[in-house]
Specification:
The protein is an alpha+beta fold. The protein has three helices and twelve strands; from the N terminus they run E-H-E-E-E-E-H-E-H-E-E-E-E-E-E. The longest helix is centred in the N-terminal third of the chain and has 15 residues, at about 15-30. The relative contact order is 0.17.
């Protein structure tokens, strides 16, 4: 028997959970439990900061995509491909390409998935250059500043503060500031 591999399925945006539910029902109805092993909508924890208040939420890691661990054959391909909301498999033409081990590790799946380090939650903020903010923690606590740059990858904002009579750029974590 063939080995099950992880495949990526493209869906209409916003239909990921519905597609998962529909495929799960099709697996049950057609008794494909031995061939389609798991259907996932990868989620990640995100910390949103609004007006200085942190709120943890779960967001889709890949909007418009669903991961499926399955043995690829004509039956499984047909069931998945003809599920309402599915636009196709990811791969050249109509040939699905399985994920490699390297691609699966950051998703927490695969051989080393259990040991994979969970990524730190991303912080979503509404800061834009020109916004007035106040530093609420750290060495610059109580300092007012104007946002000059936002770096979502580093999870920081650069603000201009007055130091020795000059405007000086200072990089501060999202968690240490709030809008004024």
């Amino acid at each position: 028997m063939d080995e099950a591999k992880w495949y990526v399925v493209h869906t209409y945006s916003g239909y990921e959970k519905k597609v998962k539910t529909n495929i799960d029902k099709a697996i049950e109805n057609r008794h494909l439990e031995e061939q389609i092993l798991e259907v996932r909508v990868p989620m990640q924890e995100v910390v949103e900061v609004k007006n200085g208040v942190q709120k943890q939420t779960m967001k889709k890691m890949f909007p418009g995509y669903v991961l499926i661990n399955m043995i690829m054959n004509d039956d499984t391909w047909y069931v998945v491909r003809n599920t309402r909301g599915v636009t196709g498999f990811v791969g050249p033409g109509s040939k699905p390409v399985p994920l490699s081990e390297e691609e699966m590790i950051p998703l927490g799946i695969g051989e080393q998935g259990a040991e994979a380090v969970r990524p730190k939650p991303k912080i979503m903020v509404e800061y834009e250059p020109g916004d007035m903010i106040v530093v609420i923690a750290g060495a610059w606590e109580g300092t007012d500043g104007v946002v000059s740059a936002v770096n979502p990858q580093k999870q920081t904002v650069t603000i201009k503060v007055e130091l020795f009579g000059r405007e000086t750029p200072v990089e501060i974590s999202f968690l240490e500031v709030k809008k004024k």
